[in-house]
């Protein structure tokens, strides 16, 4: 029987920055238009966090019943470690996704009802990442999905629900969040190349191989920095996002130095922190500017 602490660990708190940072960035972009609405931002945050917890439990369930998590170098998995039954983890996933859906419907109804359709696509993307007979996460499309859902949709959706429009500042923030969020997944899949290869989980990292995956990870960070600099042409305040550069360098060091296995786990934390610091710095700059 899993403890409360193990259930929390199974929800993968280190990945929650992938949900929190885009909402902060999107709210900052709305503030730049003079249209930030705090309670809508909180609703968007509930949606994002509930969805990522649901994704994590769904991933735990689907990978667990397939045997993908039987041997792994990463953090705790509830089903793979036999600490919780597949049924209970699936129920946790469904409950989390339901909370996100309810908050999303509420946010759509006070903004624009057509957003409900976007939410439905997000829910499908969350479940079929590793669920179903042909999960797209097993075919190398996980990074694209993360870029779209935790970058473009999360940031622009947050900005739109508050300002009822999006602009180039929101788009730039969405691109940066998407790139950094994808980098988190790349680091995770880089660590799991040996076990994923054995289990038949063909992630993008498995397709690229170890060396090219490391180069891809660094390229994502560099591109995010380049977009930050480019955004300065629209608003010089965006350069405050470069305050996250030190964290990005710390995150990239184990990847660039060729570390493997558990030594790559801190990369997920540091990449997530890079996202969070960038989002807070840029959002505050946009709001104050």
TrEMBL record:
Keywords noted in UniProt: Cell membrane, Membrane, Menaquinone biosynthesis, Transferase, Transmembrane, Transmembrane helix
Gene Ontology MF terms in the entry: 1,4-dihydroxy-2-naphthoate polyprenyltransferase activity
Parts of the chain that traverse the membrane: 37-58, 91-108, 114-132, 144-162, 168-187, 216-247, 267-288
Annotated CDD domains: PT_UbiA_UBIAD1
Catalysed reaction equations from the record: an all-trans-polyprenyl diphosphate + 1,4-dihydroxy-2-naphthoate + H(+) = a 2-demethylmenaquinol + CO2 + diphosphate
The UniProt record lists the keyword Cell membrane: yes
Coiled-coil regions listed: none
UniProt membrane topology term: Multi-pass membrane protein
EC number(s) given by UniProt: 2.5.1.74
Enzyme kind, highest EC tier: transferase
Keyword presence, Transmembrane helix: yes
Compartments reported by the entry: Cell membrane; Membrane
UniProt cross-references to InterPro entries, sorted A to Z: MenA, UbiA_prenyltransferase, UbiA_sf, UBIAD1
Pathway involvement of the protein, from the record: Quinol/quinone metabolism; menaquinone biosynthesis; menaquinol from 1,4-dihydroxy-2-naphthoate: step 1/2
Matches recorded under Pfam families: UbiA (PF01040)
Family the entry assigns: Belongs to the MenA family. Type 1 subfamily.
Role, per record: Conversion of 1,4-dihydroxy-2-naphthoate (DHNA) to demethylmenaquinone (DMK).
NCBIfam families given in the database record: menA, PRK06080.1-3
Name of this protein: 1,4-dihydroxy-2-naphthoate octaprenyltransferase
Highest classification ranks of the organism: Bacteria, Bacillati, Actinomycetota, Actinomycetes, Mycobacteriales
Gene name in the database record: menA
């Amino acid at each position: 029987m899993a403890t409360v602490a193990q259930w929390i660990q199974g929800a993968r708190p280190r990945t929650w920055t992938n949900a929190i940072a885009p909402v902060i960035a999107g709210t900052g972009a709305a503030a730049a238009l003079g249209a930030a609405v705090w309670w809508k931002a909180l609703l968007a945050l509930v949606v994002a966090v509930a969805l990522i917890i649901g994704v994590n439990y769904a991933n735990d369930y689907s990978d667990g019943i397939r045997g993908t998590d039987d041997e792994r170098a990463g953090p705790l998995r509830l089903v793979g470690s036999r600490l919780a039954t597949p049924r209970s983890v699936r129920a946790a996933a469904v409950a989390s996704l339901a909370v996100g859906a309810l908050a999303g419907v509420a946010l759509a109804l006070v903004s624009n009802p057509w957003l409900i359709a976007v939410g439905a696509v997000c829910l499908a993307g969350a479940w079929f990442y590793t669920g179903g007979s042909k999960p797209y996460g097993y075919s190398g499309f996980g990074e694209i999905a993360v870029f779209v859902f935790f970058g473009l949709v999360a940031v622009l959706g947050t900005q739109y629900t508050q300002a009822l429009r999006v602009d180039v500042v929101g788009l730039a923030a969405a691109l940066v969040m998407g790139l950094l969020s994808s980098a988190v997944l790349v680091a995770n899949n880089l660590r799991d190349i040996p076990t994923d290869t054995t289990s038949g989980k063909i992630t993008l990292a498995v397709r690229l191989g170890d060396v090219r995956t490391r180069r891809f990870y660094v390229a994502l960070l560099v591109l995010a920095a380049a977009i930050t600099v480019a955004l300065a042409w629209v608003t010089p305040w965006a350069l405050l996002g470069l305050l996250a550069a030190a964290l990005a360098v710390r995150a990239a060091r184990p990847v660039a130095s060729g570390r493997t296995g558990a030594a790559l786990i801190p990369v997920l934390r540091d990449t997530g922190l890079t996202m969070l610091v960038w989002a807070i710095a840029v959002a505050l700059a946009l709001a104050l500017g």
